[in-house]
């Protein structure tokens, strides 16, 4: 039944049926969680072979004792792996501990307070600076900006990537815009992959931006394909070299959703000039990362081809989960005028847009029926979705069986909220 064509009596009858189903879910006392994009246990099990790999391998090929202090940039083999994942030269990459989020936050602190290339370049000296936020987007990126007091300016995500006409206009006409957040492949939560044209336009922004502009290129899902022959992401640094904007680019990635989510290694890549200044911050807070963990990750993954082979095993686990989400959305909501959603070919999320004004109500209904969802508004800066419609679904952590039930409840909640708005 399409909302637009249904009579009031038909809607009232369906609402009563849905309300009864909903009550049964409430009475069942369920506890299902679709909040965050965590790997499931079966995915984590794939890396268990890594344990024990350090036996007789705690001394590097160069003779460095990996059990000791030192090595601020990370071990050479880890930096090489990071360079292959990010499409950079090894000299442009450092490897850290498990969280790329930590490196992102540290770099933003560094640029804000200390300056990306010395004190004279510190954003804090310039006044009330701004950052572009691609929406819907990743809540933790927005939280970093909030923490630093950076004013965020929303830019819509389009099919090919950010609305680059809007980005160009904003950056060209406001020198206080100091950067933008990007998740260029399987963007969180929409699943978009930036087109080559968009990548090139982003790389060229340094030519028109104010001083000390930085693109924060979080390639968190660069190898997280669900299917063979995936859409390829253009190499943004290659285009930066073309335009002479290498200093404007900061790239990050990690193995945290490749091996162990709480025990991977992270990478930050940028120009050698930027790294020279960033090392000064790292040297104040650290004697070096966990080199033993870097060693075992490299021994297990070896190189980018080893990473891709391992990720094909992840895909086998994840494909049925993403298919389950699409099955329920299509069968329960397809053609009914109650919302739209993405069908990503990789990454960790499915983005659902309800009818305007209903996201918070759907999340509330789902929570009271035992399905915990990411809070409505989380995919926008300051948790304010101007249309109150976007909901991020995270299907990776639950079992297929739990996901089957959770999606039945979610669809019921969408139908119930949509019909009640219409009546």
From TrEMBL:
PANTHER family: AMINOTRANSFERASE, PUTATIVE-RELATED, ASPARTATE AMINOTRANSFERASE
SUPFAM superfamilies hit by this protein: PLP-dependent transferases
UniProt-recorded name of the protein: Aminotransferase class I/classII domain-containing protein
GO molecular function: L-aspartate:2-oxoglutarate aminotransferase activity
């Amino acid at each position: 039944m399409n909302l637009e064509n249904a009579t009031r009596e038909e809607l009232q009858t369906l609402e009563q049926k849905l309300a009864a189903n909903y009550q049964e879910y409430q009475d069942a006392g369920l506890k299902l969680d679709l909040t965050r994009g965590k790997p499931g246990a079966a995915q984590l099990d794939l890396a268990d072979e890594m344990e024990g790999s350090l036996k007789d391998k705690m001394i590097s090929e160069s003779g460095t004792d990996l059990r000791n202090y030192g090595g601020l940039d990370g071990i050479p083999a880890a930096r090489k792996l990071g360079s292959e994942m990010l499409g950079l030269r090894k000299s442009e990459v450092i490897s850290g501990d498990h969280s790329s989020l930590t490196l992102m936050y540290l770099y933003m602190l560094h640029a804000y307070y200390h300056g990306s290339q010395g004190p004279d370049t510190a954003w804090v000296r310039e006044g009330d600076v701004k950052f572009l936020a691609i929406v819907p987007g990743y809540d933790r990126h927005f939280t970093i900006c909030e923490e630093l007091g950076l004013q965020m300016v929303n830019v819509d995500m389009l099919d090919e990537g950010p609305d680059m006409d809007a980005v160009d206009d904003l950056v060209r006409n406001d020198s206080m815009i100091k950067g933008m957040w990007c998740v260029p492949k399987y963007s969180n939560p929409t699943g978009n992959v930036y087109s080559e044209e968009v990548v090139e336009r982003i790389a060229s922004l340094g030519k028109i931006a104010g001083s000390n502009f930085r693109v924060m290129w979080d390639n968190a899902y660069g190898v997280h394909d669900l299917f063979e022959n995936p859409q390829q992401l253009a190499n943004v640094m290659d285009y930066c070299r073309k335009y002479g904007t290498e200093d404007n680019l900061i790239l990050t990635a990690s193995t945290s959703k490749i091996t162990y989510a709480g025990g991977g290694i992270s990478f930050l890549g940028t120009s050698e000039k930027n790294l020279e200044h960033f090392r000064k911050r790292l040297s104040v807070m650290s004697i070096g990362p966990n080199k033993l963990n870097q060693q075992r990750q490299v021994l297990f993954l070896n190189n980018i081809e080893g990473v891709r082979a391992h990720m094909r095993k992840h895909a086998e686990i994840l494909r049925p989960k993403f298919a389950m989400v699409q099955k329920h959305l299509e069968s329960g909501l397809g053609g009914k005028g109650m919302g739209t959603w993405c069908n990503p070919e990789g990454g960790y999320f499915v983005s659902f847009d309800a009818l305007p004004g209903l996201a918070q109500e759907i999340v509330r209904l789902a929570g009271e029926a035992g399905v915990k969802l990411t809070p409505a508004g989380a995919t926008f800066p300051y948790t304010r979705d101007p249309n109150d419609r976007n909901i991020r679904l995270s299907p990776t952590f639950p079992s297929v069986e739990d996901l089957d039930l959770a999606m039945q409840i979610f669809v019921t909640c969408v139908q119930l909220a949509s019909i009640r708005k219409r009546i």
